[in-house]
Amino acid sequence: MRLFEAIIDANHRAVAGDKEAGLHPADFADELPVIALTCVDPRLNAIFPNALALPAEEFIWLRNAGNIITGPLSSTMRSLALACAVKGGKEIAIIGHTDCQICKTTAMQLLDKLQALGVDRHQLPENLNEFFGMFGSERQNVIKACDIVRHSPLIGPKIPVHGFLVDIETGKLEWIVNGYEAWQTLPDTSEAIKGAGPMTKELGSFAAFNLGEMKFPEAKIGELATKTEDWLSQKVEKLEMAIPGTPETKAAVAQEVVEYAKKHWPQPPVVPPKIPLPPPIRPKIIPTRGRR
To answer: Is 77 within 8 Å of 149 (Cβ atoms)?
Structure first.
């Protein structure tokens, strides 16, 4: 039995009334400590780490509003990566909870609440849902967060990433994403690229990606250079995460995209250099002394 299998077993027995339910951390020394990301809801203070049957020293607790992860290189991902690399975390658990107030808050309600705190709309990003990571389902939010963590370049592939939903009333854990199963079924991509032919034809499901269908952002001529760099860096970053294979393969395909984008990016019209104008010719004034 692995660590979180034992944790779930102990948790469910304890919730059912078994006073002898518990865990022997010494039996799982190679899988500890655990890194857990939860919400900032103060009701969770009485639940963790007891719900996991873990001592406090084996529980690295990270928290943010709604246990939200907005991207593979976000600040939360940085904390998770450091918790693994520096604090020695062996497994990651994303733990949502029932009756989450973030889940129940709409974008308009959030605007009203921020306005009451003196934060005007023009001070906020244009896309509130994307920036704050708003969600409508606690379960789907956990699944999405696990997917982001599992595919983040900051987290090693051998670290299991689990997803749970805890009942805020009882403390019972529901195992939504089994990190052990995800790790066992990960495809071996070390031999993904073999033989001759263009790189993009050897990438399995990624082969359906059509470079010719790429849409470029609209921009004024004066903004093209800046927006090209920003847009390309964002697209290449997402693209490399989606491509299977070795780092060399990812880089090669990403470079193809960059070259295609540069070739097809709308170019500003050629404006001839300005020809300097000659100085104005002033008429000579003939003195009229002695003349009438």
So the answer is: yes
Domain boundary pick from 136, 153, 184: 184
- On the question of pLDDT at 196 being above 60, the answer is no
What are the tens digits of pLDDT across the range 210-230? 434 344 444 443 444 455 555
- Do 79 and 129 reside in the same domain of the chain? yes
Structural domain including 244 reads 199-264
The last residue of a domain, from among 184, 207, 227: 184
Residue 279 φ then ψ, to 5°: -60, 150
